[in-house]
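User: Predict the structure for this protein chain, please.
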Amino acid sequence: MTFLTKVLVILLATNAVLSFSPAPLSNRRDRFLALDSIASEVTDEMKVAMKARDTVKLGTIRLIRSAFANAQIEFKTDELTDEQAQTVLRKMAKMRQESIEMFSSGGAEDRADAERAELAIIEQWLPKLADEEQTKEWVIAAIDAVGGDNMGKVMGALMKDHKGEVDGKVAQKVVKEELAK
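Assistant: Here is the predicted structure, written as structure tokens:
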């Protein structure tokens, strides 16, 4: 008798196979589908892109899902929170923005256009960042809170209070301008 046959006999003898209920799996699936998380929205949007045969959108969404899977491994979690998903999407958006700048400066406008299309798809799940005027108000408040002209401390206070709401490059530019006054 082989090992697998012995295991099957033991399972049948204990009635474990007959009493198995798939309820825990379906409960987990229902719980996942009930959430309106960014990850589930991305999955839903992938289905729409597949049906529409939109190759650009489908390819970008597959990249997003792959990045989410890598982040799940990195964060050691089964499901990403929206904050973690936004962090992943911000990294992806930043990479696309840098690629657009490089391709545009190198004269490869077709590649820059492809990156712009991917960036537009990624940005649909990201909240809008503050404009320069709002960032300036926050910078002034951070300078008042820190009480100095140390750029590192001002940026630290600003990013601590407004993480995910402000673009780092815009904030750095505004901080430099305000500290130069």
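The two ends are 86 Å apart (CA to CA).
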